[in-house]
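testing teh design pipeline on a random one, pls ignore if ur not involved
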């Protein structure tokens, strides 16, 4: 396991369509383990492969609030099966845009199929923060950031802030 650097927006690697995992093998497990460690260290409730410069269709998440019984989920080749008509608004953040938050409206529930770290097929219904997070992470695998759900003005304001932050980080 190792901590991986998290890419910051704007970065062309965050805009790419990720490719399906062909076989869930030792390399996949190594990446997933490092992503889980990186997510908890950040800390965040989710992390998608492109954020750590991988183009595999993998994300990890853990929206449990207690620190003791961590139950990280690894979702490989996730697909949306269905979404609820009911919508939910969450103030979303992203580790690739640190300290920037904005309301995003998404389906309140989402059913997803995916492979786990043992290559076993799952079909799960997510609700609340789990559903918001799962959709935010799946977006990452398609090169979409939460700011892409906002107005052009908000998106350009947040991108400008990030360009400034990245310049400051490069100088320090
Ligand atoms: O840590 C995170 N918090 C969060 C809060 C509301 C909606 C989505 C998220 S995901 C984010 C971590 C992240 O950037 N995942 O890609
Ligand atoms: Ni994110």
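output:
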């Amino acid at each position: 396991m190792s901590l991986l650097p998290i890419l910051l927006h704007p970065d062309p690697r965050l805009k790419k369509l990720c490719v399906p995992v062909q076989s869930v093998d030792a390399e996949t497990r190594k990446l997933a383990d490092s992503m889980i460690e990186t997510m908890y260290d950040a800390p965040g409730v989710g992390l998608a492969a492109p954020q750590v410069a991988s183009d595999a269709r993998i994300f990890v998440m853990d929206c449990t609030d207690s620190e003791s019984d961590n139950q990280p989920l690894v979702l490989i080749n996730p697909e949306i099966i269905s979404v609820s008509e009911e919508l939910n608004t969450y103030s979303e953040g992203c580790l690739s845009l640190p300290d920037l938050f904005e309301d995003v409206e998404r389906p309140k529930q989402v059913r997803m199929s995916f492979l786990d770290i043992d290559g076993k097929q799952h079909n799960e219904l997510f609700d609340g923060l789990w559903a918001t997070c799962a959709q935010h992470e799946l977006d990452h695998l398609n090169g979409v950031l939460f700011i892409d759900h906002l107005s052009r003005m908000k998106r350009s304001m947040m991108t400008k802030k990030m360009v400034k932050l990245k310049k400051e980080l490069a100088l320090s």
